[in-house]
Amino acid sequence: MPPRWPRQPDRKDPDFRKLDDRMNFAVHVAIAATINSGLWFFHILKTTNWEWLLPLTGGWTVILLVHLLYISAIANYSNTPPKST
What we know:
The chain is an all-alpha fold. It has one domain. Helices cover about 65% and strands about 0% of the residues. It contains two helices and no strands.
């Protein structure tokens, strides 16, 4: 069942931004897991050595960890004050 939002979704709403960023992170993890597991599956089946696969997986893992660090520690989800004109 998809998540329900009790009010009109708006990126200015800090709770919605936080939920949206976490769902975006979950999508990125799912894409990385799908592609990497497929590549490793075919790597195991092949007799040749894919030397680029381990650095690719490691780099992708680092990128996901930086993304997790951003949404959990760096991102500011406080109310944004109205801009003065």
